[in-house]
Amino acid sequence: MVKRNYSIDVVLHALSDPTRRQVIERLGIGPTSVSDLASPFSMAMPSFMQHLDILESSQLIYTEKVGRVRICYLNQNPFSVMENWLQVQKSQWETRLNQLDSFLLKTRGKT
């Protein structure tokens, strides 16, 4: 198995668009065809395909051609990059808030 590096910048860019997030949410249910993914959106297929290209280049999804139908799959691995980054940020802010809380409690006791 090839270990891949996922760029958080690329993942966040791909998820910055509501259409792409809806596609990801739909693929969370299970794989589906491009035409089924596109059907809820009121945009031309070439515009929708640009969204899929961004999702595929970010490696959040991958596609497979089965006969005449292109099936899209969700790749959950890039989400771990975001999850790890968010966990670090959360930990840092919790530490800072705890330090501020301690400081304020000490300051309140001095007045």
From TrEMBL:
Family annotation (PANTHER family): SLL0088 PROTEIN (PTHR38600:SF2), TRANSCRIPTIONAL REGULATORY PROTEIN (PTHR38600)
Protein name: Transcriptional regulator
InterPro entries: ArsR-like_HTH, HTH_ArsR_DNA-bd_dom, WH-like_DNA-bd_sf, WH_DNA-bd_sf
Coiled coil: none
Pfam families linked: HTH_20 (PF12840)
Domain of life: Bacteria
Domain HTH arsR-type positions: 1-96
NCBIfam families, A to Z: HTH_metalloreg
CDD domains named in the record: HTH_ARSR
Species: Leptospira mtsangambouensis
SUPFAM superfamilies the record matches: Winged helix' DNA-binding domain (SSF46785)
Gene3D superfamilies: Winged helix-like DNA-binding domain superfamily/Winged helix DNA-binding domain
